[in-house]
Amino acid sequence: MKMDPDWQLDTLAVRAGQERSQFGEHAEALYLTSSFVFESAAQAAARFSGAEAGNVYSRFTNPTVTMLQERLAALEGAEACVATASGMAAIMATIMALLKSGDHIVAARGIFGATQQMLGTIMPRFSVETTFVVGNDPAAYRAALKPNTKLLFIETPSNPLTEVYDIAALAEVAHAAGVLLVVDNCFCSPALQQPLALGADLVIHSATKYLDGQGRVLGGAVCGSKELVEEVFKYLRTAGPTLSPFNAWVILKGLETLKIRMQAQSANALDLARRLEAHPMVARVFYPGQPSHPQHALAMRQQLTGGAIVAFEVKGGRAEAWRVVDHCKLLSITANLGDTKTTITHPASTTHGRVSPEARAEAGIGEGLLRIAVGLEAVDDIEADLRRGLDAT
Ligand SMILES: *Cc1c(COP(=O)(O)O)cnc(C)c1O
Question: What is the three-class DSSP state of 93?
Fold first, then answer.
């Protein structure tokens, strides 16, 4: 039993992709093995040549990883998915597989710090240049395209400001120029947003975040058409940043609670955003689920909820923001997100600390900005923890 075409997302998250072994185990099996044995020299040759389907070596494929790939593909509505060692490995593999020296990328300035670093400082050494576009106006992306542009890369909602990008409009811009639209779907997960259905060509995941959901392992994935995913797979199996079977197993179990976690954490985030908006020390709250968010209508069209990330600007600057962080006893001071435990971070000095001050200012990441990745604790307790620092400033 792999999956039924009529199954809804909730069912797919629990059941899709599972292959039972001869032992009939109920839970997904964890195949901790680096290689696979063959019955004969002829079979080994057939497996290596690809004439016979089957596993050879876990850098190429592993049955636990395959189950995760099938489940994630089902959730994203993708033909295919390939898992990677981390979210950054997914981004790197996509670029290395699909681009060559002399190609060009158009990316949003508001993308994840490490992605900015990779596109802005590493890829130019291989003559792959990136134009960063500020904001989310599709016309600005169209204007940044060049004859050698191959990829348009966005993240929505963006990190940490939760800017929402119109996936369907940007897909049109990209496709009119023969460019692929790649969407990092980390903040929403497929439980809240399915970019491929809106026209994106590839979806990238840091499975480290909501897909695992409990801060245990690193992982990543690329989902899309068979043809594109096959290219990424060919790069991965040779270059090596594939997902470990143990991490795949943990993420498979994480996916089973993805929908209820995303719904509960989104509800907590909405509640917290409203409470923060009412606090006199808060200059501004960034939450797509609130009418105060500039792209609230678009977010509600393209996402099921506003998500579980709330950013807010503390009046003052770095000292006031750090005071809030330092008064936290419940919230974890960590740059990670997508956990059932609520986390707090000061982006300007952590996740975006290596981005140049000019680029940070351009992206609107101020010194007073804090990002909360809301978890499953009681909102009263989360609010009380933040109030200690806010009321003291
Ligand atoms: C964390 C993150 C990544 C990178 O993922 P890793 O698993 O840490 O490599 C990429 N994009 C976004 C939006 C992220 O939050």
Answer: helix
- Does residue 209 line the site of ligand 1, with CB under 6 A? yes
Model pTM score: 0.94
What sections of the chain are H helices per DSSP? 9-15, 41-49, 63-76, 87-98, 113-117, 138-144, 167-176, 226-239, 245-255, 258-277, 296-302, 318-326, 357-363, 379-392
3-state SS, residue 181? strand
Which residue carries 């998915």 as its tokens? Answer: 81
pLDDT for res 357? 82
- Indicate whether residue 189 lines ligand 1 (CB < 6 A): no
CATH of domain 9-255: 3.40.640.10
Distance 206 CA to ligand 1 centre (A): 5
Where along the chain do the CATH 3.90.1150.10 domains lie? 258-390
Question: From CA 307, how far away is CA 222, in angstroms rounded?
Answer: 21
Q: Are 18 and 2 in contact (CB under 8 A)?
A: yes
Q: Is the CB of 86 under 6 A from ligand 1?
A: yes
Token output for 183? 């969407």
- CATH class for the domain made up of 258-390: alpha beta
- pLDDT at position 113 is 84
Report phi then psi at 111, rounded to 5: -80, 165
Mean pLDDT by 10 residues, the chain (393 residues): 81 95 96 97 94 95 98 97 98 98 95 91 97 95 98 94 96 98 97 98 98 97 98 97 98 97 98 97 97 96 97 95 97 93 95 80 88 98 96 80
**What sign results for the dihedral spanned by CA atoms 52, 55, 59, 64?**
positive
Angle at which helices 226-239 and 87-98 cross, to 10°: 110
Residue 15 gets which letter from DSSP? H
* Sequence ranges of the chain with CATH classification 3.40.640.10: 9-255
Does ligand 1 come within 6 angstroms of the Cβ of 339?
A: no
Distance between CA 371 and CA 299 in Å, rounded? 19
Q: What is the pLDDT of residue 96?
A: 97
Nearest CA to ligand 1 atom 2: 206
Asked if residue 206 has its Cβ within 6 Å of ligand 1, the reply is yes
Q: What span, in angstroms and rounded, lies between the C-alpha atoms of 272 and 286?
A: 11
